[in-house]
C-alpha cells in the first residue's frame, strides 16, 4: 500500500519538524517566564528550526527547478520525438511529449513542470516490446498525473531541514521507492502487472535491489481496504499529535 505508506512517512517527518517549531509555544504555556533558561532554549530550537526550514525550502526548490529547466532544454536540443523511433514503436505510441535520447543505458524518466516530458533512451526502446513500452509510459505518466515530484520535494525539504546528525537517509530512500511503487500501481491499473514486470526486468541492471522490490510488490495484491484506512488514520493522528498537545496545554 504505497499511498498510505507515503502519507505515514510524510506525517512522521512533518510531525517531527512541527515538534521543534512548537517548542517555544509549549515552553511559554508550561512555564511562562518563570524559567528563562528553558524558555531561551525552546526559543532557540524553534527559531533555528524555522530558519533551517525556510533555507532548505528555498535551496531545494530553486535547485530542483534550475536543474529541471537545464535538463529540459538539453533534452529538447539533443532528443528526437518518437516519430524517429522504429516503426513498431512509433505505431504503439505517438505522443509529442515523449522524447528519445540516442545515448545512454536503458532508462525512462519524466521531467515534471512547465511542458512535461517523458524521456526514453534508444537502448530502452530496443529492449521493450509494444506492451512493455505502454506500461513504462503509463508508469511515467502516473508520476506526472499524481505530481509525485511535489511530494518528493516536500520530503526532501523536511529531510534537509533537520541537522545532518539527526537525518535518516534510509527514510528518504524509502520514500523514493514508495513513489516508484505508487506509480507502478497506477501503471498496473492501466496496462496490467505482467507487462510492467517484464519492462522492469528488461530495463534493470544486474543487482538492482529497487527493481527486485518493485517486481515483488507487483506479485502481491493491494492491501485490504480496512488496512489502508487504518494506516491513513494513523498518519493523520501522527500529524495532528503536536498540535493536539499544544491545545491541551492551552486548555489546562
Structure overview:
This protein has 252 residues and is mainly alpha-helical. It has one domain. It is built from eleven helices and four strands, in the order H-H-H-E-H-E-E-E-H-H-H-H-H-H-H. The chain has helices at 2-21, 23-31, 36-78, 87-92, 122-127, 130-146, 148-161, 169-191, 193-203, 209-218, 225-251, and strands at 80-81, 98-101, 108-111, 117-121. It has a four-stranded mixed β-sheet, with helices on both faces. A hairpin with a 5-residue loop joins strand 3 and strand 4 (117-121). Helix 1 (2-21) runs antiparallel to helix 8 and helix 6 (130-146) crosses helix 8 (169-191). The longest helix has 43 residues, at 36-78. The model has no long low-confidence stretch (mean pLDDT 88).
Key structural traits:
single chain, 252 residues, mainly alpha, 4-stranded mixed beta sheet, 4 strands, elongated
What is the structure about, briefly put?
The chain is mostly helical and 252 residues long. Helices cover 74% and strands 6% of the residues. Strands 1-2-4-3 form a four-stranded mixed sheet, sandwiched between helices.
Structural class by SSE content: mainly alpha
How many structural domains?
A: 1
Distance between the termini: 39 Å
Number of distinct helices: 11
What is the strand tally? 4
Topology (SSEs and partners):
Layout: H1 2-21, H2 23-31, H3 36-78, E1 80-81, H4 87-92, E2 98-101, E3 108-111, E4 117-121, H5 122-127, H6 130-146, H7 148-161, H8 169-191, H9 193-203, H10 209-218, H11 225-251
Parallel strand pairs: 2-4
Antiparallel strand pairs: 1-2, 3-4
Helix pairs in contact: 1-7, 1-8, 1-11, 2-3, 3-7, 6-8, 6-9, 7-8, 8-9, 8-10, 9-10
